[in-house]
Amino acid sequence: MTQIINGQALAKIIKNNITKNLIKLNQGDENCPQRPNLAIILVGKRADSELYVNLKEKEAKEVGIDTHIYKCSADILENEIFDIVIHLSNDDKIDAILVQLPLPKNFDTAGIIRAIDPKKDVDRFHPQNLEQLFKTCDHQHVIPPVHGAVLEILKSINCDLKNKQVIIIANSDIFGKSLAKVLTCEQAEVNLSHPEDKNLISLTKQADILISAIGQPKFIKANMIKKDAVIIDIGITKQDKKVLGDVDFNSVKDKASFITPVPGGVGPMTIAMLFKNTLELYKQRHR
């Protein structure tokens, strides 16, 4: 029987540790508490993006991180978004900047991310941060939150990545390649694939760990996985008011050893790792 990995419980541990770290930082300075400041830019009225931003704002407050939310209409001019990003990059009060993705299609997403000060890029997808990630395995304790979530989830089940066969199925090359690099640094043997690859099943059936981030509900079936494989389901799709993952849980439940549920798996962990990055960027700026 597949064991379900409780992402919410793991996230709570991480967030509690962040709060403890903040309390230590504030000892002896009760009149001037030190609180990291996270700026979030939200463009448009996507229901899922609004939900994620509201969750981040609520949970950040509970952890001890101050948030500054910039809600912009979908018809805002692109140069105005650049102005906001540049302003926040130059604002000494702000420690971390997050642009909630996806942006509306008419915006230059890559250009807007490039405009963020790399030292405040909490998602770590600025070209300079990606270059650093690919160049070395020393990530200064700050990697993309989803990647950090994957590592923490595997750590929680005592999964040693050394020599493990890993398959990453992803639609985004940047996401897939950067996650592959992080796992390779842990001495895993990683294959990167796309959902339409002809050889996909032959790759997935050999994998000790399968990671899917494609946004196709119930795409991963039992016939695609190796017995006792670990399944990390990053994909999220809303369908008939339900939130579904890439994995058909009923199909794999008697074959996989561990699986992250959707919802309640990678999602809460990603938010926790976002806060962990925010604290680390704060500490790097104020050392």
Mean pLDDT: 94
Kindly state the number of beta strands: 11
Cα separation of the termini: 48 Å
| Rg, Å, rounded | 19 Å
Number of helices: 10
SSE topology string? EHEHEHEHHHEHEHEEEEHEH
Largest sheet: 6 strands, parallel
Overview of this protein structure:
With 287 residues, the protein is α/β, with parallel strands linked by helices. The protein folds into two domains: 31-118, Rossmann fold (3-Layer(aba) Sandwich); 145-267, NAD(P)-binding Rossmann-like Domain (Rossmann fold), CATH 3.40.50.720. It is 41% helix and 17% strand. It contains ten helices and eleven strands. Strands 1-11-8-7-5-6 form a six-stranded parallel β-sheet. It has a three-stranded parallel β-sheet with strand order 3-2-4, with helices on both faces. Strands 9-10 form a two-stranded antiparallel sheet. The termini are far apart. The mean pLDDT is 94.
